[in-house]
Amino acid sequence: xxxxxxxxxxxxxxxxxxxxxxxxxxxxxxxxxxxxxxxxxxxxxxxxxxxxxxxxxxxxxxxxxxxxxxxxxxxxxxxxxxxxxxxxxxxxxxxxxxxxxxxxxxxxxxxxxxxxxxxxxx
Length: 122
Known about the structure:
Layout: H1 3-15, H2 23-33, H3 44-68, H4 86-94, H5 106-117
Helix pairs in contact: 3-5, 4-5
């Protein structure tokens, strides 16, 4: 019986959506991962991957909701979908001007990147 509250807490924590992360925090964690092989065991790589996954899903949902409402989405990806590499993600984050990184969420940085990469045609 002792394990039930612990399991419930773990399920709640893992099921919770990723909270907004400032670009400055994302880039700091990404930079720390480059410092050596032991940095990969910090757990930050999974945190960053989950953040981008959650941001991507939220942006897709926003775009689809706009389209269902008869509006044009912020960006228009190709029909086959978009595959992003770690370099693409870092490029999206680094495109945010340094003074704005603490106030800009990773989701907003990803949206701006997608708008630049996949503009909608008029």
